[in-house]
């Protein structure tokens, strides 16, 4: 009886057979491999999601192309030369010093360095398209009285009518200043065309009725366009206009032609050639 009880205490033979079959089943042997594959797939998805979440590099904005140049080559003049273009004493301020080679200077002693010097050329134009050049060749340093306000450098280049103020900026003139502004009747408009030392500045006045830039003024720097054509104020349209410069704390070189120091992208007659007409 005891032996039978011990034998009956164990699991029945059919249960033992079922357990052995389950242990040998392919489902139990493949479970770890499937689990590893599932984990790998989940990791792959996480990597893909992280890559998708990465911020895309910002595209570099395209620089807009400058407007097409509408100025064209000018026809050569065949007329004989007349008197050279120059700054006459009657059309300059008292503190302006002129020379035959186009150099302009100003008096700087006795507090004169605080005053603007102005000079208007003796030849004006009322039609056609013409250029003249200005270059800052020297910044003048003057000894100031201790505690006194130092004089600020200044330059204005433009055109004016005959008999206008010798200091540019009135209603009878239109000009650019060294700080990158256009100036008329005391109103300043930003243009971005700054004027610096040793740069050749070309001022182009277009009064050609057949040109798309008729009644405009443009600034060029070292032969390249520094501003787009600006329309002339109504007060100046139809009038004779003269080259004009104002400066303080510097010396200038002016060139009226016939050959430009810094040629433009197109052929253009200079003020000296306007004197031949």
Blueprint (SSEs and pairs):
Elements lengths: L1 H8 L3 H11 L2 H28 L33 E6 L3 E3 L4 E4 L10 E5 L6 E12 L14 E7 L12 E5 L3 E4 L2 E4 L9 E8 L8 E6 L2 E2 L4 E2 L10 E7 L1 E6 L15 H4 L3
Antiparallel strand pairs: 1-4, 2-3, 3-15, 4-14, 5-10, 5-15, 6-7, 6-14, 7-8, 8-9, 10-11, 11-12, 11-13
Describe the structure.
The chain is α+β, with helices and mostly antiparallel strands and 277 residues long. It has 4 helices and 15 strands. The strands form 2 sheets. Strands 2, 3, 5, 10, 11, 12, 13 and 15 form an 8-stranded antiparallel β-sheet that branches. Residues 1-7 have low confidence and may be disordered.
Task: Jot down its keywords.
single chain; seven-stranded antiparallel β-sheet; 4 helices; 29% strand; 18% helix; eight-stranded antiparallel β-sheet; 277 residues; alpha+beta
């Amino acid at each position: 009886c005891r032996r039978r009880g011990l034998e009956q205490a164990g699991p029945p033979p059919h249960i033992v057979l079922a357990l052995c079959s389950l242990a040998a089943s392919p489902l139990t042997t493949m479970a770890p491999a499937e689990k590893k594959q599932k984990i790998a797939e989940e990791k792959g998805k996480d990597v893909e999601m992280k890559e998708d979440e990465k911020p895309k590099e910002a595209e570099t904005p395209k620089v807009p192309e400058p407007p097409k140049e509408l100025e064209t080559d000018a026809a050569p003049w065949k007329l004989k030369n007349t008197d050279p273009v120059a700054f006459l004493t009657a059309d300059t301020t008292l503190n302006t010093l002129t020379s035959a080679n186009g150099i302009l200077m100003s008096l700087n002693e006795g507090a004169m360095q605080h005053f603007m010097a102005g000079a208007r050329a003796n030849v004006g134009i009322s039609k056609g398209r013409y250029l003249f050049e200005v270059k800052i060749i020297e910044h003048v340093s003057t000894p100031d009285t201790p505690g006194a306000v130092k004089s600020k450098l200044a330059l204005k280049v433009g055109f004016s009518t005959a008999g206008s103020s010798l200091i540019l900026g009135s209603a009878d003139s239109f000009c650019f200043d060294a700080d990158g502004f256009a100036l008329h009747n005391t109103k300043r408009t930003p243009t971005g065309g700054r004027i610096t030392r040793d740069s050749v500045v070309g001022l182009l006045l277009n009064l050609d009725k057949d040109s798309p830039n008729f009644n405009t003024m443009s600034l060029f720097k070292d032969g390249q366009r520094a501003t787009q054509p600006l329309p002339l104020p109504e007060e100046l349209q139809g009038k004779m206009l003269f080259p004009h410069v104002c400066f303080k704390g510097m010396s200038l070189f002016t060139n009226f032609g016939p050959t430009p120091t810094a040629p433009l992208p197109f052929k253009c007659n200079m003020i000296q050639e306007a004197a031949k007409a």
